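Design a sequence for this backbone.
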């Protein structure tokens, strides 16, 4: 169900949908997917639709200091010129938050500000989804994109007379979210173009941040190029404070960014070379001594394979990853002493496996990782391995169910049909399910039921339906899901 042309009828329908979904009864229409998913996250965070106000993070006398230190502080005049006059004329307010959804600036129509204060729509309050449920600010920060929330699409009934549109603002250097910009007002003031306006303003803000970054980069280069030129033939690079590479000597063999940790005076590059890190007034000089050897370095390999898209990161650099190479990495991580080409072929292809095919794929993988990270005879990982499936295994062995759930965002390499991967995936899924059902922790059971394969597990929702108190906001959602599963079985 999208937003309709008749605000009054739309508001009435949305309230019917809201009440039906939360009570577990058949709804006259389905909420938008972004709303349905947000309601589920909010209920999992124990947000009460009938009695909830945003928490106060900063008192009135603290807000000024927090604002002055925030990276969006310099952009507020731009945002004000873009939105406040429009918001004032259309009976809206403009809001700017930090990355946690805490309101740092609020400007606009005085009458709307007076109505916003009693419901906590003011400076210092936190509007993240886990704090106040579905709302444009919190949901935009979760989905990392523009969102419009209208009337009863808000989970908390207090805000059913409000509409809001928000978009996140990103740091052009690191890509992280700095905060969000929002326009909020009463229903009768809604204009369909508000979300487009907010999105365009966020993009303009990011453009200004990008220009400011370019000016800083040029200043850093001009000031510090003599340091790079004076290396006397050693390889080196100029870095921004965040590790972005601005200039190199010689060109080539340098990534766009180098992961830095506070206090380090050296860093290991992706090719295994150890480089020295020297602080400059506005960044860093990194240089590779001529005698640096990759053999003395043991890289760190992070594997995140319990998710929709497998990710491998070597010393802070994400590796391009095919499914077959992900399978190889998983098998080598599960067998630290190493495996031969014949053993890998059996685990990947079964009895029909060809060791020659495996050797070719391993050769390409080793070219990506480097000799410092992978050894041969037998094939084994020399890198320090941090893998989410190994973390989940260890957590289940120790009885730490919350840690196992946190690691298991999805089954292991869901697209893999390799016999050994399928077996490991099935064993891990079965162990997690058994542990969650036996643990008798409703929060753990609820979390398990929100993901694959728990979302289709009839026994899980039967347990939840029996054990959740009737007043728990998750109870009607559980009942509705259980009825759907029962009807699907029938």
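Sequence:
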């Amino acid at each position: 169900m999208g937003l309709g042309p008749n605000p009054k009828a739309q508001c009435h329908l949305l309230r019917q949908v809201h009440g039906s979904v939360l009570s577990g009864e058949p709804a006259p229409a389905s909420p938008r997917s972004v709303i349905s998913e947000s309601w589920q996250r909010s209920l999992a965070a124990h947000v009460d639709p009938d009695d909830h106000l945003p928490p106060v993070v900063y008192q009135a006398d603290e807000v000024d200091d927090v604002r002055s230190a925030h990276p969006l502080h310099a952009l507020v005049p731009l945002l004000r010129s873009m939105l406040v006059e429009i918001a004032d004329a259309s009976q809206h307010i403009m809001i700017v938050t930090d990355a946690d959804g805490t309101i740092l600036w609020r400007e606009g129509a005085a009458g709307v500000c007076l109505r916003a204060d009693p419901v906590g729509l003011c400076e210092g309050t936190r509007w993240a989804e886990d704090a106040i449920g579905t709302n444009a600010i919190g949901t935009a920060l979760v989905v990392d994109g523009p969102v419009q929330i209208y009337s009863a699409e808000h989970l908390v009934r207090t805000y059913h007379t409000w509409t809001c549109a928000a978009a996140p603002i990103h740091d052009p250097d690191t890509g992280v979210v700095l905060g969000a910009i929002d326009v909020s007002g009463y229903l009768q003031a809604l204009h369909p173009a508000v979300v487009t306006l907010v999105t365009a303003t966020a993009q303009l803000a990011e453009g200004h941040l990008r220009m400011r970054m370019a000016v800083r980069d040029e200043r850093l280069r001009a000031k510090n190029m003599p340091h790079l030129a004076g290396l006397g033939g050693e390889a080196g690079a100029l870095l921004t404070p965040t590790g972005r590479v601005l200039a190199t000597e010689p060109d080539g063999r340098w990534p766009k960014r180098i992961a830095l940790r506070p206090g380090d005076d050296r860093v290991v590059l992706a090719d295994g070379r150890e480089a020295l890190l020297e602080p400059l007034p506005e960044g860093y000089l990194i240089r590779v001594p001529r005698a640096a050897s990759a053999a003395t370095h043991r890289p760190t390999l992070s594997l995140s394979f319990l998710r929709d898209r497998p990710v491998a990161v070597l010393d802070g650099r994400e590796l391009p990853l095919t499914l077959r190479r992900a399978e190889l990495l998983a098998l080598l991580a599960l067998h630290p002493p190493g495996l031969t080409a014949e053993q890998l072929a059996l685990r990947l292809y079964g009895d029909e496996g060809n060791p020659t095919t495996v050797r070719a794929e391993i050769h390409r993988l080793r070219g990506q990782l480097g000799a410092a990270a992978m050894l041969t005879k037998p094939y084994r990982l020399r890198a320090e391995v941090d893998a989410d499936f190994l973390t989940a295994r260890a957590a289940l062995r120790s009885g730490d169910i919350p840690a196992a759930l946190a690691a298991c965002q999805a089954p292991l390499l869901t697209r893999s049909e390799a016999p050994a991967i399928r077996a490991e995936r099935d064993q891990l899924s079965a162990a997690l399910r058994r542990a969650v059902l036996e643990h008798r922790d409703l929060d753990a059971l609820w979390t398990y039921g929100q993901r694959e394969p728990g979302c289709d597990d009839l026994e899980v929702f039967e347990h939840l339906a029996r054990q959740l108190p009737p007043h728990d906001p998750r109870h009607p959602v559980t009942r509705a899901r259980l009825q759907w599963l029962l009807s699907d079985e029938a």
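The first helix runs from residue 7 to 23.
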